[in-house]
Specification:
The protein has about 220 residues and is of the alpha/beta class. About 35% of the residues lie in helices and about 30% in strands. Strands 1, 2, 3, 4, 5, 6, 7 and 8 form an 8-stranded mixed beta sheet that branches. A hairpin with a 3-residue loop joins strand 6 and strand 7. The longest helix is centred in the first third of the chain and has 18 residues. The protein is globular and about 50 Å long.
Length: about 220
C-alpha cells in the first residue's frame, strides 16, 4: 500500500523519523551565509530600500498573498543576485516526489506501506539540471516555521546527493537560509533569521548571501 503525504503537511519530527534527518550544531557546517560575503553597491542599497518601502506600503492595505510576495520582494532579489542570467535559469511550480525508501535502508514496514511525499516548489533556480537553490515564498501572515519542513522535503529530493542543497524560506518580511547535505545521512543547518522590521534594511544581508550562494554554485 502507498500512502501519499502532501509536502505542506510534513513536520520536522516526521522528517527526523523517516529520513534520519538531523540538525547540525557545528558553526563550520554552514559558513556560506556569513563568511566572505560579497559587498553590494550603493545603487543596490537604494533599490533595496525602495523594495522594503514598497512591501511595507502594500502591506498596510491587506496581508500579501504568495504571488504578491514574489512580485514585490522576491523578484527584485533574484534579479540583483543574478539568478535571471546564465548559468542560472528559473523554473516555477516544479513537482517533486520523495520516498522514505530512497534514503532509509534496512527498514521494512510491518504492513508493507510505502510513504511518498509530494509537493510543488514555488521557485526553483537551476543550473545544468542540478537543483541548486530552492526558494519558498509564503503568505506574509505565515510563520517561517511552517515553511522550513516543506523546504527541507524538497531539498531531500535533490537528485545529486554529492552536492549540497541551499534554500531560502521567506514570507515577505522574514527570511532564513538553509543548507542540507545527504552524503552519509541527511544533515541541515539554518542561518540567522532576517526581518524587514528592524531599523537597518536587512535585505542588504539577504542579497549578500544570495550573491555568495551564486558564487558557490556557479
Amino acid at each position: 500500500m502507498i500512502q501519499v503525504i502532501q509536502a505542506q503537511n510534513v513536520t520536522l519530527a516526521y522528517l527526523k523519523k523517516k529520513f534520519a534527518l538531523y540538525k547540525s550544531e557545528d558553526e563550520q557546517f554552514f559558513t556560506e551565509w556569513f563568511d566572505y560575503i560579497p559587498e553590494i553597491s550603493e545603487v543596490e542599497k537604494q533599490y533595496l530600500d525602495r523594495v522594503k518601502n514598497n512591501y511595507l506600503n502594500v502591506l498596510e492595505n491587506a496581508p500579501l498573498l504568495e504571488e504578491a510576495v514574489k512580485l514585490v520582494v522576491l523578484s527584485p532579489l533574484l534579479d540583483l543576485a543574478g539568478f535571471y542570467r546564465a548559468p542560472f535559469y528559473i523554473s516555477t511550480e516544479e513537482s517533486v516526489e520523495i520516498s522514505e525508501e530512497i534514503i532509509i535502508e534496512n527498514e521494512v514496514d510491518a504492513e508493507d506501506t510505502k510513504e511518498i511525499i509530494k509537493g510543488k516548489i514555488d521557485v526553483l533556480v537551476l543550473q545544468d539540471q542540478l537543483w541548486l537553490l530552492i526558494i519558498e515564498s509564503k503568505r506574509s501572515s505565515f510563520s517561517l516555521a511552517k515553511a522550513i519542513p516543506q523546504a527541507l522535503t524538497y531539498m531531500l529530493a535533490n537528485p545529486q546527493p554529492d552536492h549540497p542543497a541551499y534554500s531560502l524560506v521567506m514570507n515577505g518580511e522574514d527570511f532564513q537560509f538553509m543548507k542540507l547535505i545527504k552524503q552519509d545521512k541527511p544533515m541541515y543547518a539554518l542561518s540567522d533569521r532576517f526581518t524587514l522590521y528592524r531599523r537597518e534594511n536587512e535585505l542588504y544581508k539577504v542579497l549578500n548571501i544570495l550573491k555568495k550562494l551564486g558564487q558557490v554554485l556557479s
